């Protein structure tokens, strides 16, 4: 998108040499992303057209351009965790929403992910969570990735973390995770191992149901 806009701007300069740099910069700031049609998004998500309109108004209020970059996403997310450092967890969350890996989240990206988290089937929610934890996108969760996620969660919760973060606490959580999830003891957790173990965990099942009645 940036290359296309840049090319169009260069062509405009060539046709209208009287325009100065300020005019061109103003034109660039007015280029806003427009989302997919509501009918199309309604068909692709589990939201009604009215719900999509409400979500879009909120999205545009926070991001007038219609596109969120990682720094903006981190800033918004940090407001929910004022007593901790949410930047690293927000980084992983941003990557989970940025399904095209282009460094930005459009309204469609946002609402597709939200649809899964709020209205998706149990398997869809677990698959989304697995991909959040699978940082390098190789189809497995390894110990290094899980350690990074656990540390990011502790950093995000800050002083409200219990028990207080000590040197071995993240490793204890990782060990417990792999003890429960890694059934064949090969050092990595597959999607199927993750889903089966989560379905057998009452706490995980309750957490999957938390947001079902948000909207």
Automatic annotation (TrEMBL):
InterPro entries: EF-hand-dom_pair, EF_Hand_1_Ca_BS, EF_hand_dom, Recoverin
One GO CC term, this protein: voltage-gated potassium channel complex
Gene Ontology molecular function: any one: potassium channel activity
Domain of life: Eukaryota
Signal peptide: none
UniProt-annotated stretches for the region Disordered: 1-22
Subcellular location: Cell membrane
One of the GO BP terms on file: regulation of potassium ion transmembrane transport
Location, primary (coarse class): membrane
Keywords: Calcium, Cell membrane, Ion channel, Ion transport, Membrane, Metal-binding, Potassium, Potassium channel, Potassium transport, Repeat, Transport, Voltage-gated channel
Domain EF-hand: 85-120, 121-156, 169-204
Family recorded in the similarity comment: Belongs to the recoverin family.
PANTHER family: CALCIUM BINDING PROTEINS (PTHR23055), KV CHANNEL INTERACTING PROTEIN 1 B ISOFORM X1 (PTHR23055:SF89)
The protein's name: Transcript variant X4
Organism the protein comes from: Nothobranchius furzeri
Native organism taxonomy: Eukaryota, Metazoa, Chordata, Craniata, Vertebrata
């Amino acid at each position: 998108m940036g290359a296309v806009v840049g090319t169009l701007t260069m062509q405009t300069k060539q046709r209208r040499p009287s325009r100065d740099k300020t005019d061109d910069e103003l034109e660039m700031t007015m280029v806003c992303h427009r989302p997919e049609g509501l009918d199309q998004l309604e068909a692709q998500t589990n939201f009604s057209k009215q719900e999509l309109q409400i979500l879009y108004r909120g999205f545009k209020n926070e991001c007038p351009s219609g596109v969120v970059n990682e720094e903006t996403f981190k800033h918004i997310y940090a407001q929910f965790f004022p007593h901790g450092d949410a930047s690293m967890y927000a980084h992983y969350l941003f990557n989970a929403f940025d399904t095209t890996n282009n460094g930005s989240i459009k309204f469609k990206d946002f609402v597709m992910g939200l649809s899964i988290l709020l209205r998706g089937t149990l398997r869809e929610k677990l698959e989304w969570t697995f991909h959040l934890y699978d940082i390098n996108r190789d189809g497995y969760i390894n110990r290094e990735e899980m350690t990074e996620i656990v540390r990011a969660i502790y950093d995000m919760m800050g002083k409200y973390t219990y028990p207080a973060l000590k040197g071995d606490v993240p490793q204890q959580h990782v060990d417990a995770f792999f003890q429960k999830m890694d059934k064949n003891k090969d050092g990595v957790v597959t999607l199927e191992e993750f889903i089966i173990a989560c379905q057998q965990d009452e706490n995980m099942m309750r957490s999957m149901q938390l947001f079902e009645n948000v909207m």
